[in-house]
Design goal:
alpha+beta; 2 domains; 7-stranded mixed beta sheet; about 55% helix
């Protein structure tokens, strides 16, 4: 046993650590998405393939061996959205993959200013903000964009004259990525009748995914925030900023505050 450990080099430890970190980041990226179910399906197929070899089921073994010989291509096709999101994730922050607190604060400021301006003019808006887990599997259609989060662009997108003002604007990894997306409507029976399509879509999204949704009412101009299937309504700019700051804190900042509270 000691001989095994004596042969381990520092480079081996570094090699194992890098692979473990990559696997950990992949798990975080697919956690809570349908990619997990697909991976389980592939694992079942692999288990059946191994069983067919042991049990001499030649036809089944031939069929599955041909399928698994193209497994790399199958994975690329099935997980193309997750792979694209992962590469964008790494490209923007190659080491931690977490938006720092200054960037998060600037994004929140732009969102608050945009929602306040839209609300004052009673222009309806729905903004979906991805948190730690992906929401691509839930989004329906939409126009792809890749832009910095800015008050001016958000206002322009939701202007009634804009061809993509209907549907949701999506924020992922600190960028505006999709506009005009249709979200699944909540089927909750306990929702009040005064909630419109935007509010029901916001609740529906947060029931299924780890996301935050901001809604600006077209009728009243009131601002609401949905998370975890619930909704906080009638927010002003100050309270909206506080709510978003609490819900969108980077993981490191959140964990640090939690540790400080425990020590206190």
């Amino acid at each position: 046993m000691l001989d095994v450990f004596s042969n381990i080099r520092l480079l081996d430890i570094l090699d194992i650590s890098i692979v473990a970190f990559i696997i950990y980041r992949i798990i975080l990226l697919i956690k809570g998405t349908r990619a997990v179910q697909m991976l389980l399906g592939l694992a079942v197929i692999l288990a059946v393939y191994m069983a067919s070899r042991v049990g001499d089921l030649h036809t089944l073994n031939w069929f599955l061996s041909n399928f698994l010989s193209s497994i790399i291509l199958v994975i690329v096709v099935i997980f193309q959205n997750d792979i694209r999101r992962a590469l964008m994730h790494v490209g923007r922050n190659p080491f931690l993959g977490v938006t720092n607190s200054n960037e998060e604060s600037a994004i929140i400021d732009e969102l608050v200013k945009a929602c306040g301006a839209l609300g004052s003019r009673k222009i309806g808006a729905l903004i979906a903000i991805e948190r730690e887990n992906g929401i691509n599997d839930i989004l329906e259609s939409g126009t792809s964009i890749d832009a910095r989060v800015s008050c001016e662009l958000i206002r322009a997108i939701f202007m009634p004259s804009s061809p993509i003002h209907d549907g949701a604007l999506v924020v992922q990894q600190g960028r505006l990525t999709l506009a005009g997306c249709f979200l699944p409507l909540s089927r909750g029976l306990d929702l009040t009748k005064d909630l419109g399509t935007r509010h029901r879509a916001a609740i529906g999204l947060t029931e299924l995914a780890d996301a935050v949704a901001i809604i600006v009412s077209e009728e009243t101009g009131n601002i609401s925030v949905a998370v975890n299937g619930g909704m906080t309504r009638n927010l002003d700019a100050s309270s909206l900023k506080k709510v978003l700051g609490r819900l969108l804190q980077p993981r490191k900042v959140k964990n640090k505050k939690q540790k400080q509270l425990k020590k206190g």
